[in-house]
Amino acid sequence: MHEFVRHECRQLQQALHGHPLQTYSAPLQACMRQGWQQVFAHGDWPRWQEALQHLPTDAGNDYDLARDCVCVGPDRDDAGQRKWLMQLHPWRKGPFRFFGTLIDTEWRSDWKWQRLQPYLPDLSGQFVLDIGCGSGYHLWRMAAAGATAIGIDPTALFSAQFALFKRCLSQQPVFYLPVGIEAMPTAMQAFDTVFSMGILYHRRAPIDHLLQLHELLRKQGTLVLETLVIEGDAEQCLMPAGRYAKMRNVWFIPSVPMLAIWLQRAGFRDIRCVNVCSTGTDEQRRTDWMTFESLADFLDAGHPQRTIEGYPAPRRAIILARR
Ligand SMILES: C[S@@+](CC[C@H](N)C(=O)[O-])C[C@H]1O[C@@H](n2cnc3c(N)ncnc32)[C@H](O)[C@@H]1O
């Protein structure tokens, strides 16, 4: 795996060569190295590493990243493969098909991509950043659309899941920094498009998060913001008194008009909400690949339009804005 990290750093350096992001090549590589050190220091790393050692490392030309179910590698008849993939449980964001095994993740992340794809700028040739990219599912979709995609996420397991795929697709311009947004160099002003999906409600200082997104984008660059919202007017925002849908780390859930004000005050323009929808138990659910509690357990069984705590059930908006 140390060779994997060295390869990733070299490839990132080459990818950034000649681009305004080149100025940040060294600090980004440092984030990558330090992030992977944290992953290797995680108590579960030996188990994940054992799984990685038993799974294929090269897909050759046999992959399809443009499909809803991101496919990597030819089908192979190996009864043991499923066991090793399960050693990277829980699988939250996907779906994937890995050398013939369907990884039916908790989330149908392809549905989110379908909702936002019609509104995306042309990603071909763009340098894009996906903040809180999880296993990297959306990074592969961005690469399929022609982008050089950099994802950041501090959750060690998701980094290991990403590494499983990147080893097989080593020439793809897709990079993963196993760090939180706090570790990113500030004021880069260089990304063409920045994605912040499923992040804003987890931030204690949401306006600071929006300001940071603004500073990551080049002038005229596009923000794709996907987050929880409530119904309501420009004066409404929910701050849960405790947990929201059993999550301890949900801080602010604004109405769409209030979110537009936040964005405007953070310096964004051309703010438009392109989609609002309720999250259903067919989009986020327990599967063989994520056997813990899921959305159905977080809703009030008698009133599924409410969370178990009595708050409005999850409703998500996609907002596009420009720097
Ligand atoms: C709700 S998930 C969203 C995943 C994906 N973006 C999506 O929309 O499906 C939130 C993600 O944010 C990551 N995360 C947590 N703290 C973070 C931080 N400080 N900076 C960046 N990502 C973070 C989590 O590990 C998790 O993968």
Compose a concise summary of this entry.
By secondary structure, this protein is of the alpha/beta class. It contains ten helices and 17 strands.
Keywords:
four-stranded mixed β-sheet, alpha/beta, 323 residues, seven-stranded mixed β-sheet, binds S-adenosylmethionine, Rossmann fold, 32% helix
Order of neighbouring strands in the sheet with most strands: 9-8-7-10-11-17-14
Q: What would the average pLDDT be, to the nearest integer?
A: 97
Q: What structural category arises from helix and sheet content?
A: alpha/beta
**Number of helical segments with 4 or more residues:** 10
In CATH terms, what is the fold-level topology?
Rossmann fold
Instruction: Supply the CATH architecture.
Output: 3-Layer(aba) Sandwich
Q: Please, what is the CATH homologous superfamily?
A: Vaccinia Virus protein VP39
Low-confidence stretches: none
Span between N and C termini? Answer: 38 Å
From the alpha carbons, calculate the radius of gyration and give it in angstroms: 19 Å
What is the name of the CATH class?
Alpha Beta
> What count of domains describes the coordinates?
1
* Attached small molecules: S-adenosylmethionine
Order of helices and strands: HHHEEHEEEEHEHEHEEHEEEHEHEEE
